[in-house]
Specification:
Alpha-Beta Plaits, binds uracil, Structural Genomics Hypothetical 15.5 Kd Protein In mrcA-pckA Intergenic Region, Chain A, 3-stranded antiparallel β-sheet
Length: 233
Amino acid sequence: MRLDKYLSSLGLGSRKDVKKMIKGGRVRVEGRDKISPEISVDPKRDKIYADGALTVYREFVYIMLNKPKGCVSAAWDKKYPTVIDFVPEELRHLSLFPAGRLDIDTEGLCLITNDGALAHRILSPKSHVPKTYIAELDRAVTESDIAAFERGVTIDDGYVCKPAELEMIGGLSARIVIYEGKFHQVKRMFAAVGKNVLSLRRVRMGGLSLDESLRPGEARELTESELRSLENK
Ligand code: URA
């Protein structure tokens, strides 16, 4: 990996900033006399110092994106922008993928990582990680809808959903917590009780809440405590 790319991926600055650091003699690679931004380094093996401090290679990154409408939850797409396009450029080379899918018109909490094991743990149906959504509907939820969701509604293909928590939160907005992740699940669950979802936003996954100060399209890395909270329910 290029030295400037590596330093930038640690959050030490943009590619331009780290190039300046390197040119200013603030970076040292043990055993190398000639340092320039484009030299190739092996961050797992090479001892690389920035401002005298040994840098620590991090294998995994965890990014929270407030997914905007109009992009797909995929690492690559022929037609549409993907959630990866919203990740800071210096992190994009890290084989990132979204942990779980949101529809193209769904907004909100999207976790992007390169940690396949963590993604598997939170997405596995056996984990029953709760996911909370706010839905805007065309008609108000009734008590009988709440009871039906609590029992488990049957969606269009005959699948009986696991019990879900449904709550009216004012006007035509509802909060729903589901413990599984079938294709278009929330929309199909509401369709099963005669309601159309006009817009949908995920606000929580496990113990991790969407940072409401992120505008749609904004992303940042998770804090340590957010990362830990993700696996708590
Ligand atoms: N359920 C849906 O219908 N769509 C999503 O994007 C997520 C859950």
